Amino acid sequence: MYRVALFSWLAIFASTSVVALADAGGKSDWSYSGRTAPQFWGELNPSYSACGKGKLQSPVNFASSLIHKKDWPEIHMPTLTKSNVTVSKHTIQWTPVDEHKDQRFMVVKGVKYQLAQFHIHTPSEHHVDGLFYDAEIHFVHKSADGKLAVFGVFIEETKEDNPAWMHLLTNVPGMGKSKVVPTLAFLNEVEKMPARGGYFNYLGSLTVPPCNEGVNWFVAATPLRMSMHQINAVAKLIGFSARPVQFNTNLPEVADVPAAAAAADKKDQGSTQGSRASPMSSSDAEQTHTQTVVSHDATEWLTILVVGLVGVAVVAALFMVRVQGRKESGQDGGERMHKVPERDEEERV
Ligand SMILES: [Zn+2]
């Protein structure tokens, strides 16, 4: 939740890995980047049309003010001891096959939804006030008549490994493989989550194609904690696997905090640029002014020089005329010396 920017970079890096894996593993029907990215899902296949045209799509960005603090959904999650684990291009999925598999369910408005499987996304698909977590686990429950209720749990990084999930995350097969393994996971931690910090509830869809709607979502507001080592173990396998948040007519649109923060940053940058622009302008003006002054001074000096030269020429001409006149009238050079102040006066004109 608090490493949004860092994980954004990791996500971009990871999405590249996903593309590489998808290419290596053959043609991918849909993905999280390139020509089969989420924005194109609706056009990839007629059966995916809800991805593009649906009005109740998931995931969404929750306003923290929408947290439910009462009427906790009834969730039963006994410890998982054995599951069929499948690693695909976009997720790791655990299907319980232990003796407690029928005892994991949730009850919503009197209807029982049996846990069918759970899987993980990195980073989280749902956002809260525009922020996302490091990962999100979806516990997919199904009713007898085929309706879906999904319980979502955010995962947040902490320093210590979470022992409750230690064996779950380490005992997984390779990419594209599936196997039944002893899987120790103390899921009772999960059943307490709604009551611990509240939950979000809305009617949405599958977050992957075919994006079918009518999914009753319950997302715990308080995250589970796992170490970066544990989260990375998953992220290394599946890469970036989060659909962008969708507009859902069941929920009010929430201002996306990172976007708002980015806008604020931009605004700050703008104002910084603005405040930089001002000094720059005044500096420019100053420079222009200085240049103007320099230019003005040069013109002045040029004018003075031209006027001076013209003056000198006029004085010289007058002097020559007078000298000529004196020569003609027989006056001496002494008198010429007296004419120097006169010449100075003529120069000043
Ligand atoms: Zn999911």
TrEMBL record:
Q: Name one GO molecular function term.
A: zinc ion binding
Which cofactors must be present for this protein to function?
Zn(2+)
User: Which residue stretches belong to region Disordered?
Assistant: 262-292, 326-349
Instruction: Please give the family membership noted in the entry.
Output: Belongs to the alpha-carbonic anhydrase family.
Stated name of the protein: Carbonic anhydrase
Domain Alpha-carbonic anhydrase span(s) in chain numbering:
28-268
The species this protein was found in: Catenaria anguillulae PL171
- What residues form the membrane-spanning segments? 301-321
Which principal EC class is assigned to this enzyme? lyase
Catalytic activity annotation: hydrogencarbonate + H(+) = CO2 + H2O
| Role this protein plays | Reversible hydration of carbon dioxide.
Tell me its EC number(s), please: 4.2.1.1
Q: Which InterPro entries match?
A: Alpha_CA_prokaryot-like, CA_dom, CA_dom_sf, Carbonic_anhydrase_a-class, Carbonic_anhydrase_a-class_CS
- State the superkingdom: Eukaryota
Q: Which PROSITE patterns match?
A: ALPHA_CA_1, ALPHA_CA_2
Bias (Polar residues) ranges: 270-292
Q: Is the Signal keyword given for this protein?
A: yes
| UniProt entry keywords in alphabetical sequence | Lyase, Membrane, Metal-binding, Signal, Transmembrane, Transmembrane helix, Zinc
Please list which residues make up the signal peptide.
1-22
